[in-house]
C-alpha cells in the first residue's frame, strides 16, 4: 500500500504522466464525452433543463475505462509485469483486459463462478482481449468473493503484480486514487454546464454501486451550491433482505480494507447484496460516500429493480438512448419522484454506461 501510494502521489505531480493519461483518454477512449441536453425528459420531469453526462459513449461502454487507463499507466511506471482485477458483471474486467491488451501486459481477472455463468458474453470478451478469467468458487461465488481472491493473489505476488480495483473501495490509497481518475467526469461537466449557460446545476444525480461514477461527478463540484443525489439499488425493496442499499440500511463496519457503511448482521458478518444490476450488487460502498452522507453534503436514496426497468423504458422511448441498468436506477428514481423538483431547476445526471450488456436480461423480464 505504501509503495502504491507513493507511486501514485509521484504520478499525480508528474506533468508527463498527466499528459500521457490525457492523450489516451482522448485518442483511445473518446474523451471528452458530451453533455447532452434532453428536452423531452426535462418536460416529463417538469424541470427547466436536463442534461446527461454521456459516459455511455466511452470505449468499452462505461466510465470504468477512465480508471483502468489511469491505473495501467501507473502499472507501467511501477514497472510491474502483471495486472489482476476483480469483476462482477464483467464491465471492469473488460475495461482492464482492454488496457492490458493496449500495453501488452499479462492480465488475470477474478470473477465469481456464479457471475461467470450469468455474464458469459463478457467472459468471452475478456478472453478475446487476451486475459485469463479465473472463476472463484468460495463464499457466495460473486463479486465480494472475487475481491477476496484478488487481494489474496496481490499480497502473494505484489512484487511483480498490480491490482486494479474497479471502484472507490478497498484500502487506501484506492478510494482516493480511483476518485481522482474518475473526477474527469465532474471537471468536464462543470466546464460544459458553464458553457451551456447553467453554471452550477441545481442538482447532480448519479447511481451508486461502489461509488466511482458518482464521486467522479460530485467531487469536483462539492464546493459549489449544487445539490447532490446518489441513487443506490433497493433490489426487491428496502423492506426485503434482497437489496444493495448500503448507505440507506447499512452500518459502520470494515470490508475489504476500508471503514465505511456495510450490509452486515449483528455479528459483523457480511450480508449478501441483491440487485437486478450486477454492477450495483456489492454489500459495501466507498468510504468517502459514508463521510458525505454523515456531513449531509450528499443525499442518498434507493430505487428498486422495477424503478430501474421504468428508467430503461423512459430513456429509450423518449430520448433514443438505451441506458445500462445501473444508471437506469437514477432515471427511474427521478421519474417516480418528480415532485422533488421546481419548474426552474437544472439537473445533470451521469449516464454511467450503455444498455447493450443488459438487453438480454431486460428482455427476459420486460414485456415489450
Ligand atoms: C460498474 C458500473 C457502475 C457501478 O459502479 P460505481 O463504482 O458505483 O460507479 C455503474 N454504472 C455502470 C455502467 C457500471 O458499469
Overall description:
By secondary structure, the protein is α/β, with parallel strands linked by helices. The protein folds into two domains: 2-25 and 63-178, Rossmann fold (3-Layer(aba) Sandwich), CATH 3.40.50.1100; 30-61 and 183-365, Rossmann fold (3-Layer(aba) Sandwich), CATH 3.40.50.1100. It has 16 helices and twelve strands. The chain has helices spanning 2-13, 15-27, 39-45, 64-77, 91-103, 113-118, 120-128, 143-157, 174-182, 184-195, 212-218, 246-249, 287-294, 305-319, 325-336, 359-365, and strands at 35-37, 49-54, 82-87, 106-112, 132-136, 161-164, 203-207, 227-235, 251-255, 258-262, 298-304, 346-351. A six-stranded mixed β-sheet has the order 1-2-12-7-8-11, sandwiched between helices. The protein has a four-stranded parallel β-sheet with strand order 5-4-3-6, with helices on both faces. It has a two-stranded antiparallel sheet with strand order 9-10. Helix 4 (64-77) packs parallel to helix 5 (91-103), helix 5 (91-103) runs parallel beside helix 7 (120-128) and helix 9 crosses helix 11 (212-218). The radius of gyration is 19 Å and the shape is globular. The termini are far apart. The mean pLDDT is 96. Bound molecules: pyridoxal-5'-phosphate. Pyridoxal-5'-phosphate binds at residues 62, 64, 91, 167, 207-214, 279-280, 324, 326-327, 352-353.
Key terms for this structure?
18% strand; Rossmann fold; 368 residues; binds pyridoxal-5'-phosphate; 4-stranded parallel beta sheet; 6-stranded mixed beta sheet; single chain; alpha/beta; 2 domains
Amino acid at each position: 500500500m505504501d509503495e502504491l501510494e507513493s507511486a501514485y502521489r509521484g504520478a499525480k505531480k508528474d506533468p508527463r504522466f498527466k499528459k500521457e493519461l490525457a492523450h489516451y483518454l482522448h485518442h483511445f477512449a473518446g474523451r471528452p464525452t458530451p453533455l447532452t441536453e434532453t428536452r423531452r425528459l426535462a418536460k416529463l420531469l417538469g424541470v427547466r433543463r436536463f442534461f446527461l453526462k454521456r459516459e455511455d459513449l466511452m470505449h468499452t461502454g462505461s466510465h470504468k475505462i477512465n480508471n483502468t487507463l489511469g491505473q495501467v499507466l501507473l502499472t507501467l511506471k511501477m514497472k510491474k509485469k502483471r495486472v489482476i482485477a476483480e469483476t462482477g458483471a464483467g464491465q471492469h474486467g473488460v475495461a482492464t483486459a482492454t488496457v492490458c491488451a493496449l500495453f501488452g501486459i499479462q492480465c488475470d481477472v477474478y470473477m465469481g463462478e456464479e457471475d461467470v455463468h450469468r455474464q458469459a458474453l463478457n467472459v468471452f470478451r475478456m478472453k478475446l482481449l487476451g486475459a485469463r478469467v479465473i472463476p472463484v468458487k468460495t463464499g457466495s461465488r460473486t463479486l465480494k468473493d472475487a475481491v477476496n481472491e484478488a487481494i489474496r493473489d496481490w499480497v502473494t505476488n505484489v512484487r511483480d503484480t498490480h491490482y486494479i480495483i474497479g471502484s472507490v473501495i478497498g484500502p487506501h490509497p484506492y478510494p482516493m486514487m480511483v476518485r481522482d481518475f474518475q473526477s474527469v467526469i465532474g471537471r468536464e461537466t462543470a466546464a460544459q454546464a458553464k458553457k451551456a449557460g447553467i453554471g452550477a446545476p441545481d442538482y447532480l444525480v448519479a447511481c451508486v454501486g461502489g461509488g466511482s461514477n458518482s464521486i467522479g461527478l460530485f467531487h469536483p463540484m462539492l464546493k459549489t451550491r449544487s445539490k447532490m443525489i446518489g441513487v443506490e439499488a433497493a433490489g426487491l425493496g428496502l423492506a426485503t433482505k434482497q437489496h444493495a442499499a448500503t448507505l440507506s440500511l447499512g452500518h459502520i463496519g470494515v470490508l475489504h480494507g476500508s471503514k465505511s457503511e456495510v450490509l452486515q448482521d449483528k455479528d459483523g458478518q457480511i450480508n449478501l447484496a441483491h440487485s437486478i444490476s450486477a454492477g450495483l450488487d456489492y454489500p459495501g460502498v466507498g468510504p468517502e460516500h459514508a463521510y458525505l452522507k454523515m456531513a449531509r453534503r450528499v443525499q442518498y436514496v434507493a430505487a428498486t429493480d422495477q424503478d430501474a426497468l421504468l428508467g430503461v423504458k423512459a430513456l429509450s422511448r423518449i430520448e433514443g438512448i438505451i441506458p445500462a441498468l445501473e444508471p437506469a436506477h437514477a432515471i427511474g428514481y427521478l421519474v417516480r419522484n418528480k415532485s422533488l423538483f421546481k419548474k426552474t431547476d437544472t439537473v445533470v445526471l451521469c449516464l454511467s454506461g450503455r444498455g447493450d450488456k443488459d438487453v438480454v436480461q431486460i428482455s427476459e423480464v420486460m414485456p415489450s
